[in-house]
Amino acid sequence: MSITRRIGIAAAAAALLLSAAGCVERKLVIRSEPSGVPVFIDEDYAGETPLDWRFAHYGVRRVRVGPVRDEMGNLVYAAQQRNVRTEAPWYEVIPIDFFAEVLWPARITDEHKVPVFVLEKPGTGPSGKDAAQAVLDRAGQFREAASPVDGAAPESE
Questions:
Q1: What is the pTM of this model?
Q2: Residue 41: which residues within 8 A CB-CB, separation 6 or more?
Q3: Which of 8, 34, 72, 79 could form a disulfide with 67 if both were Cys (CB 3.0 to 4.6 A apart)?
Q4: Cβ-contact 17, 102 below 8 angstroms
Q5: pLDDT tens digits, residue range 90-118?
């Protein structure tokens, strides 16, 4: 067998091996009640729920679902947001990740499911003066908890 033929067979085998290599597919699964609500991830529009959003890097993502407005622009459902941490699984740690990303012959799916967002209609919680008074009451409680024990004002420098 000639050397060029051997090189050709080796190149074809390497191409076949690389084409059969798998990859890791990372997904953030976002659901809401009701569905069909706009989703923003790190303040970029990502789609509507239910959403399977693919990502490349692990870390903390800011996920905002909503708000939902009617044709007149009135608020139907208020927005909710959460910080979602995605952590790398064991097979994404160096040097194991090389085998999972390049050499493993099948696709690996890494799904991170976010707890379901249940959107509330406006007016279901305190609003207007009641909400403002609730904030002021909580501020007073924090102020009392942070004041010195003897009641004296802290010294200023």
A1: 0.62
A2: 28, 53, 61, 62, 63, 64
A3: 79
A4: no
A5: 878 888 878 877 877 788 888 999 999 99
